[in-house]
Specification:
- This protein is an alpha/beta fold and about 190 residues long.
- It is about 40% helix and about 20% strand.
- The protein has six helices and eight strands.
- The protein has helices at about 1-10, 25-35, 55-70, 90-100, 110-120, 160-175, and strands at about 10-20, 40-45, 75-80, 125, 130, 135-140, 145-150, 180-185.
- The strands form three sheets. The chain has a three-stranded parallel sheet with strand order 1-2-3. Strands 6-7-8 form a three-stranded mixed sheet.
- β1, α2 (about 25-35) and β2 form a beta-alpha-beta unit.
- α5 packs across α6 (about 160-175).
- The longest helix is centred in the last third of the chain and has 15 residues, at about 160-175.
Length: about 190
Amino acid sequence: MRAMKAIERADVVLIVLNAEEGIIEQDKHIAGYAHDAGRAAIFVVNKWDAVEKDDKTLQQFTRKIRDHFQFMSYAPIVFVSALTKQRLHRILPLVDQVAEQHAMRVQTHVLNDLINDAVTFNQPPGDKGKRLKINYATQVSVKPPTFVLFVNEPELMHFSYQRYLDNKIREAFGFEGTPIRIFTRRKSQDD
């Protein structure tokens, strides 16, 4: 409960994983809560000094984190040791960087240029002779960055195309460490 209350007050959540124990169910629960709450996040793998390592250990542990937390592929990972103070100095600069990304705003014309390029490269889905048309996009808030796409038929937006647009936005602007939200709305006659 204390972790949940702390997440509600936070902009950036450090999800501390114990390298000796590995990933436990509570880690997944807390990470899911942070993601759903729209908080920026960093995975901090502690007790890295206590793990027996070879040249593949870091990549294997990283892959394990990415497999268990697929919904948080945006979150950076840092391996530390609180006991030996190994790499602890990397945490606060990373928190600052992620907090900046979490609060970043994209200008509407730049966002629309990106969306138009993405649509040109990969056409939106269609169904029964109708095709999704994205008229324009705008960022409506930060913390987390939230975008609204004004479209002809919101129900034509498939989750895979939304993920494609999410990836294009991340490629162009970063948003490392932060979830982003994309919503579709029907373009009104007045727009």
